[in-house]
Known about the structure:
Arc Repressor Mutant, subunit A; alpha+beta; 5 strands; 8 helices; five-stranded antiparallel sheet; elongated
Amino acid sequence: MQPSPAEPTAALHELGRIALADTDLEGVLDQVATLAKRAVPGAFEVSVTLIRAGGPRTVACTGDAALWIDKWQYDNQCGPCLAAAAERATLLVGDVLAERRWPGWQQHAGSVGVHSALSVGLPIHETVTGALNIYATTAHAFDEDSVILAETFAGYAAISLANAHLYDTTAALARQMERALASRAVIEQAKGIIMSQRRCSADEAFAILSKASQTANRKLRDVAAELVARASRA
């Protein structure tokens, strides 16, 4: 079903009203996919692919057909969505059944009634890429206006994913710093206990703690925490 002339404009307005603070990343991408399906002329199903170190996965979709087609590409490591993500470009397949770049993909996509595909790469980060994928049930379904709309929605999805990646990276760094500070604190406590017991310097106390760690083949922090725990019970 083709969207009415007013539908793309309404969907774009809704896209601009998505509040990143009011939902999680999955919720944002679900809305992007749903609105793209409403706005892009010819769209049958829409999905968003995210590719990280662990491999590609579909993080949002509007139906099983998109999931089915995406999964084949992930399993076979080829297809328009992976190519668009790798090249960070827009890739249009006008006639799925005539496509020859990814042997087997055309039959797989055709088996669920898909005859056109449009994938727009998402430039997120050096180590994170993705694509917005739009599938249609007729050949040559996507014209120039469809491509422009798809790229508009892909740009919004890319910004959301980039922000989420930055947040995850920052949060992970903060957790690492917290653990490092906690380790340093417990090691300093253990050094103080050793200095009090052995009447030695801070350097000597650290050497004693390090030797105990090596002998026991345990992390320095764990040895220090055990020493502090024993001292607190004494």
